[in-house]
Amino acid sequence: MEPEENKYNEDFNDDFFSPDDRVWGEIEKSLPEEKRKRSFFYPLLFLGAIALVTSTFLLSKAFFQSKYSSKETIELVNSSSSVAENKVNIDNQDNNSIQENNENSENSNVISNNEVSSLSKTEENSQSESDVAKSEFISKEDRNREIEFNTTVNVHSTKESTSNFQLNIPMYVDTISNQNEINNKEESQVNSTVEGQIDEKTHMNSLSNSLDLLSTKTLSIPPINMLSEFETQSDKYQDEILTTSIQSVNKPIHYGIALNASKEFYISQPSVDSEIPLNELLQVSNMQNQFFTQLQFFYEIQNHGFAIGLEYARYVYKMHYDIHLPYDLSSEEDHGEIHTNHLTHSLPNALTTLETDLILQRSESSPVIHNEDIYLTLDAFIQYQIVKLDFRYYYSLPIGLSFGAGAQPGKIFLIHTDNQLASHHTYVTKREFNANVVLNREYLVDLVAFVNYDKQITPNSSIGIGVQVRKDVLNPNYPLRIAPGVQLKYFIR
Amino acid sequence: MTRLKGEISEAIKACKKGDHSAFRMLYDSYKNSLFAICLRYVSDRMEAEDMLQEAFILIFKNISSYDSEKGSFYTWSSKIVVNTILGKLRKNKPLLVFQEQVPKKEHSSVDLPIHDLSMKELVQQIQSLPEGYRRIFNMYVIDGMKHREIAKEMDISVSTSKTQLMYAKRAMQKKISEMHNYSQVN
């Protein structure tokens, strides 16, 4: 190390200039591996990558194989046929199947009158280890719907003998016509699997239980001959799905338009980022409290509401800058009797930046010294408007109070600006001044929380008062704003 | 830690070969002086340490490009430190931009009684300046940049740079005089 550097370094022999030990720890972690170790790194990385790709491939293959191995399904389909079909197929390993199809069975209004009308059992001396029983139920009903069951039941017997079951299961399913809400809900497919190893005694029970499960599902559908009662006394039925469906149909839904007028108050004036050069020149800034209007379209379901709308507001922002300039004689332009100095600045404020272009002048004989302080004042006036989209959710209490929150993205438009600069120096005066106002940002996003109290004045309208609290999330220098206002609502029932 | 020039040269050669102990030796030799640069620009100690760490990682990563014929290791590494700091500040605060200057002692001579201060006092006084002033002051007074360069790097006008420096100097003068008054009273 050079002597000068040694001396320079000695100046820093103080704990104040000593960084924490963790700094070296972090640096050491990022140091390149020493060369002999590095030779193992890339082959290991390559092997690891191959292992990763291979294991991903094998796992994905195993996953898809297991996903599509299940075969047994029970399907429940609604349609508009008038025929109920019941199909029961029982197949054994030797393809000795007994299939019974009951077609064109009588239409009935009896709920799930399931019965096993015939059951026969045959024993064979076969060495097969499993029996497969498949049953397929197709039920069709003549009141705008059809219910079809396709059931496969695999039964594996551990005994040496094989059991064949012959099932005859007439299915009567009653439906509700003219209840589109409910029909839609029941237009579903139910898939289930019944599979397992059972002995001969439980063989029969398993099949019966499976059929009971099916009949239970069918019971949830009310019969046709109860329709009139169902429509008038929905609470009589205990089935939760149906009851909920009926209630949701009867829930009050409101659409409407709301008009809001509020005045906004700044809790404190927005500040300028302290890191921006010349921010200290801004002595006074005042964003004047302004009225704004909101037009919203809302949609209410019971106590919950959603609204989308537009907001329009006009603002006035006034600023006063105190400027002290070091007068630079070396940058003067000589025009004979008059000497000029061309200065440009970027003067910040909370909303815009004033790009100033200033020409100062002095007479050749005036006693101004190099870097002498020139005191100037600048008063700026900006009028602008903000158009915002308004999205909000609210919850209403029965007493007329509602509260909620939302977001308001918007755009700022400059309308008018005016700037007045004055020199307070005896000899140095303003010759020419221009200021170009540039918006610091064109967009804003306000988060809003609000409370309203509404009073109904006619069956279709209400009037209310409320308070909104807003904060611009894109600019941390902007303070909270509070906006009390009134609101008119018109409902379209 | 004071080391001979030969030791530093050997350590740099060893670093180029990936010797970790040599990296440690260089770090110990220059950590304080380079950390002082970070402290001048960033008042928060933790943030300054992060910048030092980032700068040292860059120094070690690019050490093969260091040519002792072109200048001392300190000059080269301090350039990287300043560049790292300004680059990071520019990323965080868009007004600030990269600069290429190497610290030049001769530019320290300004109309401020900073020569009466110890290095620690000087850094502490600079740290106490508002951030905008601090950067202009560091760039112009300590790192010796010209207004034209500062204006270009910070994307401001020359007038703004001059005005800002005037306010920064005033603030610094005020702080130094307050410090002297305080020490005289005590």
Q: What is the first-to-last residue Cα distance of chain B? A: 33 Å
Structural class based on helices, strands and sheet pairing of chain B = mainly alpha
Trace the largest sheet of chain A across and list its strands.
Answer: 8-11-12-16-17-19-20-21
Number of strands of chain B: 0
What is the N-to-C succession of helices and strands of chain B?
HHHHHHHH
Low-confidence stretches of chain B: 95-110
Shape verdict of chain A = flat
Strand content of chain B: under 5%
Number of helices of chain A: 7
How large a portion of the residues of chain A is in β-strands, by DSSP E? over 45%
Terminus-to-terminus distance of chain A = 88 Å
* Count, helices of chain B: 8
Identify the overall geometry of chain B: globular
**Gyration radius of chain A, rounded:** 42 Å
Average of the residue pLDDT scores of chain B: 79
Low-confidence stretches of chain A: 69-204, 210-232, 234-238, 241-250
Question: Kindly state the mean pLDDT of chain A as a whole number?
Answer: 69
Task: Kindly state the percentage of residues in helix of chain A.
Answer: 10-25%
Oligomer: heterodimer
Q: Bin the helical content of chain B.
A: 55-70%
- The helix-and-strand class of chain A reads alpha+beta
Q: Secondary structure elements and their pairing?
A:
The complex is a heterodimer of chains A (about 500) and B (about 190).
Chain A: H1 3-10, H2 21-30, H3 35-67, E1 84-91, E2 98-105, E3 118-124, E4 131-141, E5 145-157, E6 162-168, H4 180-186, E7 194-198, H5 200-219, H6 227-232, H7 240-250, E8 253-263, E9 265-266, E10 282-287, E11 291-301, E12 304-327, E13 333-335, E14 338-348, E15 352-363, E16 372-396, E17 401-423, E18 429-439, E19 443-458, E20 461-472, E21 481-492
Parallel strand pairs in A: 5-7
Antiparallel strand pairs in A: 1-2, 1-4, 3-6, 4-5, 8-11, 8-21, 9-21, 10-12, 11-12, 12-16, 13-14, 14-15, 15-18, 16-17, 17-19, 19-20, 20-21
Chain B: H1 5-16, H2 20-41, H3 45-61, H4 73-92, H5 119-127, H6 131-142, H7 147-154, H8 158-185
Helix pairs in contact in B: 1-2, 2-3, 2-4, 2-5, 3-4, 6-8, 7-8
